[in-house]
């Protein structure tokens, strides 16, 4: 009988990484063995004199709480003494509701119940029994059983709680590590986003209308269809929707439907079983499985072949799918954001895209305007891309913009939209070598001669650009020396002061000369 208790508790509490589910499962079982209205896992944080409630289960279900609450001095005094004692000896602690620690526990129980229970329930008098959970002589946390009414627990219940100590300790230790990892992962993800400069520039100006639509739709679970030409920022907009949604703690997974060979689309979306096809050396989850609890961004959805369109429609309708080569039906809770630069309505009219899928995806359409129609965003974008690219490229200094740079960038039509702007800036940074960015050849650059600011003989440079480039060459040649017989002014045939003021006007910085000069 007791053997069975240990086995059953181990199976249930270690059966799922979701501690709330596992705790509820074990609660239902233990309820048959002893008086039980709630079970609770806590950790006492000694330095801060507070308790961290990890999870609670009641008749209504399990709840992952992970919240700390300070303990009164009276409660802390008895906890401290008991925990010290528990280090050497496992002594389950039987208390009634009048004990100082239990008045704190009661608050947590009621808060938890309000969060989870549909029917209003209050705890009047209650009894508790608590056991320190130990692994390798270390206290991992505490397990508390709670029963409504006074004097429910006795020595026989102390035996039960001691017996199930180990499986609970293992489960709690795993859950704590898992929670730490999750926290670490989230912080890392946030840092990476910030490092990559993953933000939507223009949300307060050229993309104000888009931003408003995003804010409206983000908290709902509705599918969103993003339209816009290539490089306008559809994926950035999808990221914003995910960030502002209730799914933001979950993953955001992307698939560019146009970049995957037709034969691999099913596997990319739904995953495959080991051996399903040549090259399937191991079972691999697809994007739907990976996006469970989060958002799936389907870029270039108009490129999906007809068979994949039918399968996608089925998942959207039923939430069910099978891996390639698998027979088990899987489910995923996923919000879909799709994007296209094509005219999908036209494709539907021509029969190139399923109308039923189109209606499912086109619940909330958002159009991202071309960059040429929101040129007011260009200065902020230029600032942003220079900063992020300098960081990515590990450039020691951040070059200035030449006086004409912004007007040139604003006069251009940007057929490749924001992506083109980003690329132009990256290329300018590579060839500028710290000199001001002029963008003199914008729209005319070829792979052989990308920008004019390196070529003094470029026939299309303005006089100022040609002068800036030439002065820079000479100043580089003299290693920053301006005056004197070996100075740049002498070579250029002008007075050093004239050269200095011209350099200032053209935004040319000279490196400090090596040694004296
Ligand atoms: N508003 C914006 N703020 C900051 N960066 C942006 C913005 N819009 C686009 N970008 C950047 O421009 C590049 C292209 O954006 P994105 O991939 O979102 O465009 P897209 O419309 O999805 O392109 P495609 O249709 O070719 O897939 C990305 O590197 C993105 O970070």
TrEMBL record:
Can you tell which superkingdom this protein's organism belongs to? Bacteria
SUPFAM superfamilies for the chain: GAF domain-like, Homeodomain-like, P-loop containing nucleoside triphosphate hydrolases
Q: Which UniProt keywords apply?
A: ATP-binding, DNA-binding, Nucleotide-binding, Transcription, Transcription regulation
Q: Which residues form the Sigma-54 factor interaction domain?
A: 200-430
This chain belongs to the protein called: ATPase AAA
Native organism is: Desulfoluna limicola
């Amino acid at each position: 009988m007791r053997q069975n208790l240990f086995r059953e508790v181990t199976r249930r509490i270690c059966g799922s990484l979701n501690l709330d589910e596992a705790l509820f499962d074990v609660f239902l079982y233990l309820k048959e063995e002893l008086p039980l209205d709630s079970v609770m896992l806590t950790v006492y944080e000694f330095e801060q004199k507070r308790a961290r409630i990890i999870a609670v289960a009641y008749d209504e279900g399990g709840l992952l709480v992970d919240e700390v609450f300070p303990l009164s001095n009276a409660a802390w005094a008895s906890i401290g003494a008991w925990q010290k004692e528990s280090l050497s000896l496992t002594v389950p602690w039987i208390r009634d509701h009048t004990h100082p620690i239990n008045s704190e526990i009661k608050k947590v129980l009621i808060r938890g119940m309000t969060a989870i229970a549909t029917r209003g329930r209050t705890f009047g008098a209650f009894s508790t029994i608590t056991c320190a959970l130990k692994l390798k002589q270390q206290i991992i946390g505490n397990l508390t059983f709670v029963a409504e009414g006074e004097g429910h627990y006795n020595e026989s219940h102390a035996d039960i709680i001691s017996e199930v100590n180990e499986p609970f300790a293992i489960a709690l230790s795993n859950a704590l590590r898992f929670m730490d990892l999750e926290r670490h992962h989230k912080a890392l993800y946030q840092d990476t986003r910030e490092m990559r400069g993953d933000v939507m520039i223009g949300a307060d100006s050229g993309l104000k209308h888009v931003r408003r639509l995003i804010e409206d739709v983000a908290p709902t679970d509705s599918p969103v269809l993003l339209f816009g030409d290539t490089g306008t920022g559809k994926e950035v907009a999808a990221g914003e929707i995910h960030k502002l949604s209730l799914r933001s703690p979950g993953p955001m997974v992307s698939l560019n439907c146009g970049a995957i060979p037709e034969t691999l689309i099913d596997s990319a979306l739904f995953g495959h079983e080991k051996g399903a096809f040549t090259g399937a050396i191991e079972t691999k989850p697809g994007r739907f499985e990976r996006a469970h609890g989060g958002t799936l961004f389907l870029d270039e959805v108009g490129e999906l072949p007809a068979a994949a369109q039918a399968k996608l429609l089925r998942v959207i309708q039923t939430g069910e799918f099978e891996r390639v080569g698998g027979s088990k039906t899987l489910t995923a809770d996923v919000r879909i954001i799709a994007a296209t630069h094509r005219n999908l309505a036209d494709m539907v009219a021509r029969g190139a895209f399923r109308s039923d899928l189109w209606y499912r995806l086109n619940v909330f359409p958002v159009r991202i305007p071309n960059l040429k129609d929101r040129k007011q965003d260009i200065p902020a974008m230029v600032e942003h891309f220079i900063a992020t690219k300098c960081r990515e490229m590990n450039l020691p200094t951040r070059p200035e913009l030449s006086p004409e740079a912004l007007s040139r960038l604003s006069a251009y039509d940007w057929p490749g939209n924001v992506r083109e702007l980003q690329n132009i800036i990256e290329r300018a940074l590579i060839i500028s070598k710290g000199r001001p960015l002029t963008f003199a050849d914008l729209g005319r650059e070829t792979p052989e001669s990308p920008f004019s600011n390196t070529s003094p003989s470029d026939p299309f440079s303005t006089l100022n650009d040609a002068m800036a480039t030439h002065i820079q060459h000479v100043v580089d040649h003299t290693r920053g020396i301006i005056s004197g017989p070996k100075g740049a002014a002498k070579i250029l045939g002008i007075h050093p002061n004239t050269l200095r003021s011209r350099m200032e006007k053209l935004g040319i910085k000279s490196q400090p000369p090596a040694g004296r000069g």
